Here is the input.
Amino acid sequence: MSNQRLRISLSVALFLIGLLVVCLIALFPGIEIVAAQTVNRNVVATAGNDAWANASFPVEKFQGYTSGFGYRRSPRNRRRVQFHNGLDIAAPKGSYVRNWFAGKVIKVGDRGACGTHIIIKSGSWKHSYCHLQGRVARINGRLYMIDRAGGIKIAKNQQVPSGMRIGRIGMTGRTTGPHLHWVIRYNNRYVDPGAVLRQMYAKQSN
Here is the structure.
């Protein structure tokens, strides 16, 4: 076989393999979530009692869970399946959001699909709070997330304890209603916040 035919054959083979992989992901979208669930079992279930005892539920005036972690139909295009990397928690607009776990604010932002948001780092954990009210402003060279009506002023690099009010439920960014989009990562891998809450309540009940 000539070199040219060999190159063509290899190109066709690689194309077919790529097409097969895409088809498998479309048919079996659980591949990514299985990896996340493995993290849940190995990390969430083995977290220390003291750690979960000090954790706080993130939303006041809780109404319900409107969209869970994992693959779902897109709210904007029902024919499209997308990976939802967090838990949507509904509450009336203006309800306060509390910090889940003590840590350091590593980001404040007000752009993109997340809208006005805060990311907090607690050791190997990162937790994000999206669609908050307010905006980001720079004051004396330091970035703040400010919601004046709610009395909220959170600075980047600020230490925040568990249970502290860090924002209010809004509709900033890409959202179809007032809710908190809550994302948790452990060592930069997504973890199901629902699994975290179940383990947290089990430990606190004991």
